Amino acid sequence: MNFVVVSSIGAVFMGILALFVRMKAAKKPTNAKKIILPPVFMSSGALMYVVPQFRLTGMEIIEVVTLGMLFSILLIKTSKFEIRENEIYLKRSKAFIYILAGLLVVRLGLKTILSATIDYGELSGMFFLLAFSMIVPWRVAMYIDYKKLYRQLHGQH
User: Is 142 left (phi over 0), alpha (psi -120 to 50) or beta?
Assistant: First the structure.
């Protein structure tokens, strides 16, 4: 099997895993650490750029970061918090499932198209940066929303 097929299968499993993690997270109260830590842990993946095969051109970086930030808008719009039982919970959103699936389909389509003209190492670097550029603004927006509710819940202004 070639790289695109294997990595696409991996992406599908990661998407399914993200869906289950999200559904489980909605059952428990959240906190700032749960919001901030995922992109911090993910940032270690940037070490891939130490290897020249994964490096991107300036224009590729601009394109990928812009696309990631645009995709993050969908995630931001479907990630809301609520106060229940004097705790802050992530609200369940039926749209999130469809948006996550849609983003996965778009990602797989892009990978299939781009793999014909872009080296797989460079493509890997692009898709890591795409995911990171999507997750960081999403988590920043979640953190801001969380802090607003936290201050409201604890009587801080």
Answer: alpha
